[in-house]
Amino acid sequence: MQKLPSSFYSRRTLTIAKSLLGKIFIRKIGKKILSGKIVEVEAYLYNDPACHAYRGMTERNKVMFNEGGHLYVYFTYGIHYCANIVTNKKGIGEAVLIRAVEPIGGIDVMMKNRFGKSDRHLEGDGHLKNLTNGPAKFAQAFGLTKKQNGVSLLGNEIFITDGEKISPSRIVATTRIGISVAQEKKWRFYIKESPWVSKR
DNA sequence: TCCACGATCGGCT
DNA sequence: GCCGATCGTGGAG
């Protein structure tokens, strides 16, 4: 499958958010290849009070001001990491949060990253569905931490490829989760009826 | 320098 | 359904 080019990431953030659904997020770790189909995202725009970049550039959010096509990973609640795709042109400060993926390859590694082991019995539906159905769960399963903050998605370690084409009628737009401002904006997008979308 | 709080998750009631 | 964990960040002073 084709790696998405820089032109994919330099468009309008809301356009990118919707077109990321169905694409394949890939991380290579040594010989292992972790992959998952993106099923749920949220968009964060520069003039949006819920966006980390809303108040301008800081030490934490400076990666968001790169040109689209970089990974922005941040630490929150003293425990979790969340991973975003930086979007739009250099200096703007926008991103798309990956909220959930459908695991495809490297499930044994994801199991180990999430639960500390990869025994076959853990691959029962309970644990499998709980693997990547949330932003911090996805980051943990794919081993994304501050070390990956700022990585280019045009390189060979972490990138996104073409996947399933999702028709507009299968895309649901709703309000974003877990924010205290700009709660009216319907900038959370997910694939209708996907079992891998986060709860709530 | 200080301190309130967060783009969450999992365990407990 | 609710609540606690746990700490880096940044806005306030």
The domain count comes to 1
Proportion of beta-strand residues = 25-35%
- On the 0 to 100 scale, the average pLDDT is 95
Q: Output the CATH topology.
A: 3-methyladenine DNA Glycosylase, Chain A
Query: What is the CA-atom radius of gyration, in angstroms?
Result: 16 Å
For the secondary structure, the number of strands is: 8
Output the structural class.
Answer: alpha+beta
Distance between the termini: 33 Å
Highest CATH level, the class: Alpha Beta
| Shape by Cα distribution | globular
Tally of alpha and pi helices: 5
- The string of secondary-structure elements, in order, is HHEEEEEHHHEEE
Question: How do you describe this structure in short?
Answer:
This protein has 200 residues and is an alpha+beta fold. The chain has helices at residues 6-9, 13-20, 107-115, 125-129, 135-141, and strands spanning 24-29, 32-44, 71-76, 80-87, 94-105, 158-161, 171-174, 188-191. The model has no long low-confidence stretch (mean pLDDT 95).
